[in-house]
Amino acid sequence: MRAELREQVTTIIASIPAGRVTTYGRIAKMTEGATARSVGAVLRTLPEGHRLPWFRVVAAGGRLADHEGASEQRRLLAAEGVVFDERGRIPAHCFWPE
Question: Where's the Methylated-DNA-[protein]-cysteine S-methyltransferase DNA binding domain (predicted)?
Answer without folding.
Answer: 5-82
